[in-house]
């Protein structure tokens, strides 16, 4: 199981997605933990069993047990936060922004890995989740920590490509039953 398996499963019409997926792993400017944690967190965010299985298998070879757990934790906490904060923003009544969320989020303060890595994974998952508030918040934390914009952009590019892989493969699986 691997990224190569995912590339091999993509149909011809998704050649751009296939090429982008290959280049994510071979040309990344992110550290190994940042790269594989981002890939794993994004895979989890897609909810595609195939994408999760393939990326998790390879990520397990490239991440410590703590980092593997933290990447899954980033996907889990952002699955909740993206819905909550996106909804509070979309309602359009700023009064909601002053109200306490009353949601437990301790993993953000103590993720078990370098905080910058966890923030990067949370940002990438938020791109898939479509939460502008979360994207802004995590980007600001990353910039204050000194992460270059190019690496922040790379995490979002990973999110976009992994999401596209999942969309294509899930569509193909559904179409195969028609």
UniProtKB/TrEMBL annotation:
Disulfide bonds join 131-134. Pfam families: CMD (PF02627). The active site is at residues 131, 134. One of its GO terms (biological process) is response to oxidative stress. The keyword Cytoplasm does not apply. One of its GO terms (molecular function) is peroxiredoxin activity. Its EC number is 1.11.1.28. It catalyses: N(6)-[(R)-dihydrolipoyl]-L-lysyl-[lipoyl-carrier protein] + a hydroperoxide = N(6)-[(R)-lipoyl]-L-lysyl-[lipoyl-carrier protein] + an alcohol + H2O. Antioxidant protein with alkyl hydroperoxidase activity. Required for the reduction of the AhpC active site cysteine residues and for the regeneration of the AhpC enzyme activity. Belongs to the AhpD family. NCBIfam families: ahpD, ahpD_dom. HAMAP family: AhpD. This is Alkyl hydroperoxide reductase AhpD. It comes from Streptosporangium saharense.
């Amino acid at each position: 199981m691997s990224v190569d398996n995912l590339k091999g499963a993509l149909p011809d019409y998704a050649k751009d997605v296939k090429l982008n997926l290959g280049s994510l792993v071979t040309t990344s400017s992110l550290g190994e933990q940042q790269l594989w944690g981002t890939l794993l967190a994004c895979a989890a965010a897609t909810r595609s069993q195939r994408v999760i299985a393939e990326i998790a298998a390879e990520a397990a070879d490239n991440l410590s047990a703590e980092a593997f757990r933290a990447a899954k934790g980033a996907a889990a906490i952002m699955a909740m936060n993206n819905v909550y904060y996106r909804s509070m923003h979309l309602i359009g009544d700023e009064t909601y922004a002053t109200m306490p969320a009353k949601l437990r989020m301790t993993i953000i303060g103590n993720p078990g890995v370098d905080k910058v890595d966890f923030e990067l994974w949370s940002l990438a998952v938020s791109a898939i989740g479509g939460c502008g508030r979360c994207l802004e918040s995590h980007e600001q934390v990353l910039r204050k920590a000194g992460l270059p914009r190019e690496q922040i952009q790379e995490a979002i590019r990973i999110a976009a490509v992994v999401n596209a892989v999942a969309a294509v493969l899930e569509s193909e699986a559904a179409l195969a039953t028609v």
